[in-house]
Prior knowledge:
The chain has helices spanning about 5-20, 25-35, 50-60, 75-80, 120-135, 155-170, 175-180, 200-205, 230-235; strands spanning about 40-45, 65-70, 90-95, 110-115, 135-145, 210-220, 220-230. The chain has nine helices and seven strands, in the order ααβαβαββαβαααββα. Strand 1 (about 40-45), helix 3 (about 50-60) and strand 2 (about 65-70) form a beta-alpha-beta unit. By secondary structure, it is an alpha/beta fold. It has a single domain (about 5-230), classed as Vaccinia Virus protein VP39 (Rossmann fold). The protein is globular.
Amino acid sequence: MSTGWLDDDTALFVRYGDAFVPRRTEQFDIVCDLLAELPRPSVVELGCGDGRLTERLLGRLHHTRVTAVDTSAEMLALARARLAGFTGRVILHRAGMEEDTALAGGPHGAIVTSLAVHHLDDRDKKALYRHIHGALAPGGVFVMADLVAPVGPAPLALALARWDAEVRAADPAATVPFESARWNTFRFPDPVDRPSGVGEHLNWLARAGFRDVDVCWLYAGHAVFHARRPGRLEEGT
């Protein structure tokens, strides 16, 4: 990817995102599966982009409202068009995920995010996790699908190779733009991508006060995390 997110990156990702993200549909299904029991029918998605995951959430969680948050007016316009059939169940809100308004209106039953947190540095990730914990209702869950940093040369080489292979398998037409854009950050490190290790995320989430902190899926340097705010559901009341 280029140093900094540009309009060309948006157009490229909107067109080829399903191929550029390893097993993207599988990741989205797992995110939805982890939201089966929520203390409140309110979900916030941070960094919603063009609304692909938002659409899946609304389609799977029939009695749930979703607030989709993104900093890009262009992405929100695309999301608005995609989600036109869910009027009354979705709110689109322009804000950075670190802003207080991003999680306003809580406490929420769940907060989710996909491919956004890895752009933050370690200090901001830890602060975000504390903010998310405070915005959840007791028993609420945080689910994150994101890029993670392999630890060690062998895992790094494996993640790099599998990512390239997944793009070729998902859509051969995406291979050339994927390579031309230098999208595989494990092959072409980019300052805009700041992935952290799985262990670091688990530690930061636990320190923020979450329980049931775990990795539910991991492949080609991408992972799905789950964490729960302790409270009513845990106590069975």
